[in-house]
Structures are given as C-alpha cells and as structure tokens.
C-alpha cells in the first residue's frame, strides 16, 4: 500500500538512519557520483587513513573539463591534466569505477549514469554537481552536496540532510507540437522566479507528465535547480520501469521485480499533503527563449522584452536593467529575428538521444548559416546517434559533431563563446560569462537552437519554412 506522504518524504523516511535534535536526518546513500573536483575529498580521507565505506556504490565520471575534440592529447592545461590524473589515481587506489576519457561509458554523469541503469527509482543519489536533481526524472532522489559532505559520504555512505518542504507542480492539458520539457521548465521558472522554489523538494504530476518521455522528465528535473529547488522528482510509472528494464546495469528478473515493488510502495497516495501547490496549463506554453542573465528571464518566442520600469521591486528593477545592458537588448523589442553568432546543442539538460533527434529533424536537408557544435551527453549517445545517421545530418548542415562532455555549457574545457557573441544554447545557465567571458547566451530547446542555426537568428521553429 502506498504511504500517505509525498514521494520525496517517503524516500527520505525509507533512507533515514537517525535524526538529531535540530531535525536533520542522517541519510543512507545508494549511489554517489563524483567528478574531477573530488581530489580534495580523497586527500581528506588519506590524511585520516580512512577507507571508502562502499567503493562499489561510488562511480566517477570525467565530464566537466574533458575536451570534446582531440581526446586527451588536446588537453594543454596543466591544471586540467592534474585533475584528470588525480581522478584516475584516486579511483584506482580506492577501487572506484571510473568512466574515463576514451572509455565506452564516458559522458556527463547525469546522462551516462541513467542510461546505464545505475540510477534507479526509489534510490538516493548524491554528488558535487548541482544538477543532481536530473536523476529525479527516473524517480530517484538526486541531491547536490558540497565537497566536505562528499568526503563524509565516501567514509560512511551517509550524509546529513535537513528535510525540505514539499512543492507539487501539476502540468495539466496537452503540449503543442514543438513544445518540449525545456519550454515547460523555463515557463515554470519564469513564473516562480529564480528563488521561487528555495527550500523545496519539487514533485511533478499531471496529464503532461503521464505521457512525457523519461528523457524529457530528466530535463524538467535538471533545470528546477535554476528555480531554487534542492531536488525535483517524478514518481515512477510504467514509462519509468520500461526505461530502466532496457538498461544493461539495471537488476533483472527477481531483482527488477523487487525494485519495482519498492518503487510502487514509496509512491505518494491520493491523500498525500503538500505544503504548496502550483498548476500550469500546458496548452498555454509556447517555445521559450531567455532574454537576460538568469533562466527566470525567459519569455515566449513572440513576447516583447520586458521593461524594467514596470517592476515594483527596486532590486528586481535594477537587476533587469543590468541584464538588458549586458545582453545588449532594449525594452519592448522582440527576440524574433535577433541575429546569433553560434549555436550549442548538448549539456546534461539537452544532450540525450531524444534531444539530438529533435534537432536533427529540423536540420535535415538544411544548411546552418552560423557555426555551431553538437555535443552528445555520453559516448553511448554518440554511438546511438551515429547508428541512426544523425551525425551525418549535423555534419551535412555544416555543424561540428563532437565527443561527449559538458562542453560549452561550462566553458572550462576549450569550448566557449567569444566575447560579445550571442549563442543559441540548449544548456541550463545563462549568467554573465557562463559560456565564456563576455558571452551572451539565449537558452532554448534543441529544436529552437537548430532552427536558429538555419535562420542565423532566433526564430519560431513552428514557423520555419
């Protein structure tokens, strides 16, 4: 029988080992994903002569700093070479499985781990990357933690967690063609604000979620971090378990049935109570584009750039003024027809096979008039895309086809936008300098970015000739 709390609360209760006087929970961790930043955690363990509690539940991914062209030979930075070498050495010394550069499973943790079957419904997964909530698209509780907390997890397989409030977001109705999870989540963040979900665990429900593919559910959960949420989750259903069943590292036979039974037991009941509810009508959602330097600065493609003078709050008014100044935009103008200099399709938000298929459908038999790169979220995605001929579509369109990695989303790996240039990007953040010093980022869906490549400017993909 389902429990009477939210899905987040049910998972948390099932993993709680003890609680302190402040109400913080000591929580058991099922999966721990680490990256190139974690060498200080191993230094701390070594200094204390501590061993990993469960090296078999820790998985390492080379993703943020890896170049997406040229392999390891393309790394010229001493700092990058250091962190990559340390990741290899630390994982070897402590018995941690590493998805290193050149390995078949290498990729962004939030793409590679789910596709391999490491992330499973009902589990708690943690890591230093803030986009850990991505795994909520598979019904897992994904939480980003700091390096000191990661050291604690490595040593004890637990971490201290202060329970969050529950926010349920219902997506009702049906989405229009060419409107995706990226547009949905930008709509949500634009309405709630960048701090609108601070202190909350977001649970998604409704008609739209019931038919939304798992890959898009991961996009939805991934970007709720940009709305302030500590975690976001979609309770598992048949789509979830069908996705998991096809993964090579997922349990099989009786193990899979036990997994499904646990996942169903943790589902929220019909009388579950949430501290806050928000409802969004999917019918009113259009392709979205950001105009400022926060994901909350997003509007439907046909809308005008807002006027900061309309803001009643002085701090927000000043923030919008600075955003427009940085982006070189004026109140009242439209982004339709705004020239761009480059495009980026990829990231842990939109680097899955479904995202690449969406972009390829727009680019097929068309030529890009601006340069751009297409970066699969994992090497497995790359192989699948090439098996389907998507790489040829991107190359024939004049775009670059790269190896897996975080790439231009974070610009610490050789991929960046030049100062003053505008990028139509499928990534998750658009703050000043995110894609390179002086870069100007317009966040949008893969189909919209592909349309911008063809037109050389921001256009409505629904109206592309």
Structure commentary:
The chain is of the alpha/beta class. It folds into two domains: 7-276, Aconitase, domain 3; 289-460, 2-Layer Sandwich (Aconitase, domain 3). 34% of the residues lie in helices and 17% in strands. It is built from 16 helices and 19 strands. The protein has a five-stranded parallel sheet. A five-stranded parallel sheet has the order 17-16-15-18-19.
Précis, in short:
It is built from 16 helices and 19 strands. With 465 residues, it is an alpha/beta fold.
Lay out the secondary structure.
Blueprint (H helix, E strand, L loop, with lengths): L6 H9 E4 L5 E4 L2 E4 L4 H9 L10 E4 L16 H17 L2 E3 L9 H8 L7 E4 L13 E4 L2 H10 L1 E4 L3 E8 L8 H12 L7 E6 L1 H5 L2 H10 L7 E3 L4 H8 L7 H13 L10 E6 L6 E3 L7 E3 L13 H14 L14 E4 L1 H4 L2 H11 L8 E3 L4 H9 L2 H7 L3 E2 L20 E4 L14 E4 L2 H10 L10
Parallel strand pairs: 3-4, 3-6, 4-5, 6-7, 9-10, 9-12, 10-11, 15-16, 15-18, 16-17, 18-19
Antiparallel strand pairs: 1-2, 2-8, 13-14
Helix pairs in contact: 2-5, 6-8, 13-16
Query: CATH fold name of the largest domain, please?
Result: Aconitase, domain 3
Oligomer: single chain
CATH class of the largest domain: Alpha Beta
Strand order in the largest sheet: 5-4-3-6-7
For the termini, the CA-CA separation is 52 Å
Count structural domains.
Answer: 2
